[in-house]
TrEMBL record, chains A, B:
This is Sulfate adenylyltransferase. Transmembrane segments: none annotated. Pathway: Sulfur metabolism. One of its GO terms (biological process) is sulfate assimilation.
C-alpha cells in the first residue's frame, strides 16, 4: 500500500513567494490539464487520447552524466577548484538535476537571477515565458571566489568531499542579499528560517553555470523511495492512463477536511468529462514552522490515511512544485470545516456559521500534543494515532520550548 | 526655440524599480521603433511608411469626461463621498488621465496591484502582457474608508476641494506597505523620499477603480506648456514624419557627454536605415536627490543647450516613462568621459584610461555650486551659466545643509 504514496522532499522555502490571489483556509488544489482533454465540441468524454503537458522549455531537463563518461568526469574534477555544498545547496542540485526547475540547466546566472526577482518568470530564447518565482543560486565567499580565479569550471563536493557535480561555463556575480530577500518574500523582517540559514550567512557572491551531476542525489533517510523524479512520475501517470492530474500541497497531517476537498475536486473533474483524474498529494518538505510535524511522521500519517481508505490510493500520488503555472487550471473551492450538526467535515455554509468549527493546523497539533482527541470524523483514527505517537516520541525538553525548525 | 523642447513632469519615483540589466554610467537611450521599419529583405530605406507602435493594450487611454457631460458629473459628484488628493495623488491622476499608464483606466485594483508587485507587468484579458513596474494606487485611511461605506463611486477633490475626478466601480483593499516597498525597491531601508512621503505616512487601505477626470491636470507653475500628453506627442511625431523615436532620460543638466551619446545614437539609427529618427529628451520630474538641480532650472539649461546647437532642436523632444518595454530596442553604448588629449567629451577608450576624466553628476553640481568652471568642452558656456545662476539664486542657509527633496 505504501508504494502507492509517492513523496518528494525539496528544499524550496515553504514561505516562497508564490502570489496567491485567492486566499483560502487551505491550499488550493492545482489541476494540471493533460494536452488533449474533452470539450463538448471536439470529442466525447469516452475517447480521450491524453498526454501530460510539456515541461517548461519544451523538454524535461535531466543533468546527469552518462555512465560511460563518469570516469573521465571524476578525473577532470580533480584538476578543478572545489566548492563544498551545504545541505541546502545539495538539495538544490537535486531539484535542478531531475528537471524540477526545467528549463534551468544549473544554478542561475545573473540574468536568470534578476528576471526571477523582478518578473517571477524567465523569458526563453524563443520568446516564451516560464514561471520561475524562487531564485536557485549557489553562494560563495571572497576566499572561494579567489580560489576559483580564472577557471571556467568548478567541482561541487558534498560535506565529505565526494564529487557531486561539475559546474561549467561559470559566471560569478554580486549576491545582493537584501534585494534578494525583499523581492522574494516582500519583507526584510528577521526570523525567516531559510533567509537566516541560506542567505544572510551565505557568501557575498553567486556562481551560476551549467551542471553535470555525477549521481542522482540520495538522502539515505529511509524516505528516498518516496522521492520520484519528474520523469518517473510522468511514467507513472502514463501507466495509470491519467487524463488529468491534480495536486494538493500541505504541510500538516491530512484530515478529513482535506480529504473532502480532494474527493470533491475529483468528482468535479469527472463531471467535466475527465475519466481518470489522478491526485498528487504533496507534503511540503524543506523548512516548515518550528512546531510542525516532521516530514517523516507526516508521511507515516499520509500512508495511514491511504490505508484507511479516506483517499483512494489508486488515484493518489504525491508531488512537488510545478513550474509553468500559467498552464494550470485553478479550481476554486469553498472552505471546509467541522459541521457539528453532521458530525463530519463539510463545506462551510455561511447561512449557519455557528454550526461550524474551524480546526486550524495549530489547533490540530495542540490537540495531538496534549493527547486530546479531535471531534469524531475529523481524521481517521489510524491517522490520528500516528500524530499522537509522534508527540509521545518527543523527549520532553527541559525548557518546554518547541524544537528549532530544520530542513526535513 | 523653446517651443521645440517639450518637457513632462510626472510623479514617478526616480528610483522606481525598472530592472536595469546593463548598468552604465549614464541612462541608456531607449529606441521606440515605429511599426514599419526598413529591413534589407522587405523594403528600401527610402520607402518607409511609418507609424508609431500601438500603446499598450492596443489603444491610448484618455480618461476625460466629454464637455457635454461635465455638468452632470459635477452634479453627480455632489452626492458622493469625497477623497481629498495629495499633491502626489493628483500627479498620478495626471499620469492616468492622459494615458501614460495605458491600459490602466484608473487607480489599480488589487489584482493589478499584486501583478505589478510580483511580475512588473499586467496580463490583459486577451492574454497579452504589458510592462507595469510601478504601482499606481490611491491610499485612504480608516476614517475615509468608513465614510465611503457601501458607495460604489467616490469624488476625488484637490487641496481646495475642487472636483478633480470621479472614481467608479471602486474596490477597497489592504495597503500592505512593507510588501509594496520591499517588492518595488528591493529594500526597506529608511530615507527613500517617495516611500516616506507617499507610502509610510499614507492610509492602510488602497482604493482602485475607473477614473472619469473632469479637466486636464495643470500645475500653473510656468511649465505646463512643456507638458504634452502622449496624444499630443504622437501628433507631433507624425507631423515631423519621425520613423524612429529614441528617448534619453536624465535627472542632471545635459552636458556634452550626454550630447555625444544622443548624437551618436542618431547617427547609428541613420546607418540602420531610418531617415528621420527623433530624440525625446526627458528630464526626470518627481522626486530627485536632495542636492539635485530643480526641474525648472534644468529645463532652462536644456533650452539653452538646444539654443546653442549642441543638440539639433529639429530632432529633439522630451518624454516620460514608456510602457511596453518589450517592444523597445535597447541600443547599448560605450561610456562617455572627458578626454584630456582631445579637450572634449568622447567615448572612453580602455586602452588609455589615464587620459579620461569622469565627471559625475555630483562632481558637476559641486563645481557649479562653487563657481568653478568645468574643463572646456564639457558643457556649452550658455548651459553652464544657467547652472551657476541657479546656485547663485539659492539663499545661503544658515546651517549649510542642502535643501530637502521635494517633488518638482
Amino acid at each position: 500500500m505504501a508504494a502507492m504514496a509517492l513523496f518528494l522532499n525539496i528544499a524550496a522555502p515553504s514561505s516562497a513567494s508564490y502570489p496567491v490571489l485567492h486566499k483560502t483556509h487551505l491550499s488550493p488544489p492545482f489541476l494540471l490539464p493533460l494536452r488533449h482533454h474533452p470539450t463538448a465540441s471536439t470529442r466525447s468524454a469516452t475517447k480521450i487520447s491524453a498526454s501530460l503537458i510539456d515541461p517548461d522549455g519544451g523538454r524535461l531537463v535531466e543533468l546527469f552524466v552518462r555512465e560511460s563518461e563518469k570516469d573521465s568526469k571524476l578525473k577532470q574534477a580533480l584538476g578543478l577548484p572545489q566548492i563544498r555544498l551545504s545541505k541546502i545547496d545539495l538539495q538544490w542540485v537535486h531539484v535542478l538535476s531531475e528537471g524540477w526547475a526545467s528549463p534551468l540547466k544549473g544554478f542561475m546566472r545573473e540574468s536568470e537571477f534578476l528576471q526571477t526577482l523582478h518578473f517571477n518568470s524567465l523569458r526563453l530564447n524563443d520568446g516564451s515565458v516560464v514561471n520561475m518565482s524562487v531564485t536557485i543560486v549557489l553562494a560563495i565567499d571572497d576566499v572561494q571566489k579567489g580560489r576559483i580565479g580564472s577557471s571556467t569550471s568548478v567541482a561541487l563536493v558534498d560535506q565529505n568531499d565526494n564529487l557531486v557535480a561539475i559546474l561549467n561555463d561559470i559566471e560569478i556575480y554580486k549576491h545582493n542579499k537584501e534585494e534578494r530577500i525583499a523581492r522574494t518574500w516582500g519583507t526584510t523582517a528577521h526570523g525567516l528560517p531559510y533567509v537566516e540559514e541560506a542567505i544572510t550567512s551565505a557568501g557575498n557572491w553567486l556562481i551560476g553555470g551549467d551542471l553535470e551531476v555525477i549521481e542522482p542525489i540520495k538522502y539515505n533517510d529511509g524516505l528516498d523511495r518516496f522521492r520520484l523524479s519528474p520523469s518517473q512520475l510522468r511514467d507513472e501517470f502514463a501507466r495509470r492512463n491519467a487524463d488529468a492530474v491534480f495536486a494538493f500541497q500541505l504541510r500538516n497531517p491530512v484530515h478529513n477536511g482535506h480529504a473532502l476537498l480532494m474527493t470533491d475536486t475529483r468528482r468535479r473533474l469527472l463531471e467535466m468529462g475527465y475519466t481518470n483524474p489522478v491526485l498528487l498529494l504533496h507534503p511540503l518538505g524543506g523548512y516548515t514552522k518550528a512546531d510542525d510535524v516532521p516530514l517523516s511522521w507526516r508521511m507515516k500519517q499520509h500512508e495511514k490515511v491511504l490505508e484507511d481508505g479516506v483517499l483512494d490510493p489508486e488515484t493518489t500520488k504525491v508531488l512537488s512544485m510545478a513550474p509553468g503555472l500559467e498552464r494550470l487550471n485553478i479550481l476554486p473551492f469553498k472552505v471546509a470545516a467541522y459541521d457539528n450538526t453532521q458530525g463530519k467535515m463539510a463545506f462551510f455554509d455561511p447561512s449557519r456559521p455557528r454550526d461550524f468549527l474551524f480546526i486550524s493546523g495549530t489547533k490540530m497539533r495542540t490537540l495531538a500534543k496534549n493527547g486530546v482527541n479531535p471531534p469524531d470524523g475529523f481524521m481517521c483514527p489510524g491517522g490520528w494515532k500516528v500524530l499522537v505517537d509522534y508527540y509521545n516520541s518527543l523527549a520532553p525538553s527541559d525548557n518546554g520550548r518547541v524544537p528549532e525548525p530544520v530542513p526535513a
